[in-house]
Every structure is written in structure tokens, then in C-alpha cells.
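User: Hey, quick favor. My workstation is busy. Could you predict this chain's structure for me?
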Amino acid sequence: MRKRNYKTQKAWMVLMALLALVLQGQSNPPGTKIYFPIMFNNWTPAPFYATSYYIQNGDPALMYDLGCGLGTRDAATPGQQDSLVILDFAQMWVENSQYGALGFEDPFNAGVWHFRNYAQLQESAQFFAKGYWACSANDDISQLTIGVGTNSFGFFNQTNRTEANLKVLAADFGRNWAYMINNLNTWARQNGYSSQVLFTGAIDIEWSGRENNDGLRLWQSSAIVKSWVDAFDTKDNNVSIFFNYGACVGCYETLDPNWKYITPDYWNIDDVWFVSWGSKPAYAVPEIYSNNGTLARQWAVISEYGAKYKASRIVFSGVMTQMQACWQRAGSDPSCASLDNTPDEGWQQLVYAVNSSVYTISPSPRWVTDIKWQFK
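Assistant: No problem, here it is.
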């Protein structure tokens, strides 16, 4: 693999600059965040999008190839590229007393889901970064932020599914997810990758009335998710962050501070704001899939709630779309007919929604990332 040791000396300085841009006020008091002022322009084009992945097999060689693909693209594209890639390893899972994530089903092995423990997840993320670094060749200026992702689905492979037990487990996962991101950035700094690569946490936070055969809700309650968020916050060294890349399920398109999503354990609007922005390490890269702009308007309302009732509006870090996933599975997913925004459409919808109110006017989101399946 090529070496660019001459860059290593400046890696720490560049990492600090990246952190200043991405973390936006991590040292401020709880509940407050700052951002660099950026002039808003209704006609600003969406950023060049990067591809995120539903990971079906986190084998290091496969992850290297994914990173190499992005690095090759950036090397062939004039100028500086600035990408966010979320590697979605699916649900948090405990197997043989080891904590980790159970990836999405491997399409080449029906009924097989690849479990990866923390060390293996960390290795997968490292090899994505190595592939990017190697294949970006002489492009020394493009930047990559890698969100190591999971979701709030399921019961951690537990038979004791009481909320009290799941809250304890969620806190364990949150702490260890923060440790993993801390370790990844230390590794990147020590090996010279931090001049171009930054690691963050990421979690698809959603809520749904879907239940399993026992009548238990398949997506976790706000209390369980907030245990994860609070625990991440305690171990993030006041530096590491996470992105919420979920949907605002059932949220209103006009502000109602008393909104609740009624399920066995409801979510309210304050919960949504907190896990997406109110918690110090929390940042938002929401799913903006719907062609009619509904999802963008829902998230703008959460931001308005923050402006009127909490510490601040949400300054959205990015937008996630699923154009490529819909290309892959349109024939088997009828919802794609109305949920296949292009990256430009998703970004423009959110920009328009948040800048339609004096309470939520914000800098334009820095990133657009479009998710696809690792394998069709």
C-alpha cells in the first residue's frame, strides 16, 4: 500500500480543523451548540453525494474495496471532495457474551446474518478508511467522515425484554460505541489517516407500532434509546459525536409541542429533538426519502420546536436519501414509488423546509449521502 508519510506531520492539525467543522461546539455547555456562519442561498446546488451502505458482510477485504471505490472517485474528480459515508451494520446484538452488531442478511447465503463484535466492527471501519486512503492516490485534500452505524431495532438478542433490562444493555452499547469511535480516531491519528479521515458514531433512531409475536414493539422506546445516547455522552471524551440518521415516524408537519407517537411506550417531540440535537454529541442526518417533501417538513418542525421551547433549533449536518437502494430493489419494494428522492431532491427539500421559517433558518447541510445495499 502506498505511503504518504509527509502528510503525517500535519495530520493532527488537519484533524482539529475537521473536528471544528463537524463537532460544532462540543466544548460548549450542555444544550448549546455553535456553528460556523455560512451564507444561505436558495439556489445553492446540493453537495456532491457519497454512497452509504447497508452492510451485509463486513469482511475487511470487502470493506477495503468499498472504501477504494470512493477513493478512486475522489481522485478522478477535480477539486476537494467532502463526503459522509454511513456504514450501517444493523441492529445491536449480544452473541456468546460478546457485544457487537448483527448485519443485514447476506443475499448469497439465505438465512445468514454476519455478527461482528466491537473489535471486528472497528476493523471493518478501518479497512474502509485504508481503501479510501490508498485509492485516493495523490488527492491529498478530499475529506471523508465515516459514521459507524447501528439502529434502534430489536431486543439485543435477549430473552429478558423488560424495559429495565434493555435500558441497561442500551447503556452498555452506548458507552462501548463511544469507546469504539474514540479508538478509531486515535488509530487514524497514529497512522496518519486523520489528515483526511474522521470517524463518528451513527444510529438510525426510529419508533414504530410494529410488534413481534409477544406483543412487544420491535423498535425501542425513547427511554431505551436515551440510555444509549446518555451513555455515549459520558464516554465520548467531549470529542466524539454520533449522527441520528433516522426518520421522524408519524411526526406532524406543523408544530404541536404536545405531539406524541402513541405506542406501548410513546415517543414525544422532546425525545426526538433530544436524541437528534439536544444531547451534546447528537447531530442529525435525517432520512429525506419522500417525493412530496413530507419528511423534510417533519424535521423542520422538530427544529422549530427546539427554537421555541429548547436551547436551539437543529442545524442539520446532512441529508440521507435512498435513490440507489430503490434502484436495486424497486421491484420488491412498492414504497419506492414515493420514497426515492434523488440526493439533490432530498437536500433541496430540507433546505427549503428549514429556511421557510425565521425560527429555523440555518446554514445549508454540509453533506448528502445516498444509501444502498452492499449487495443487490
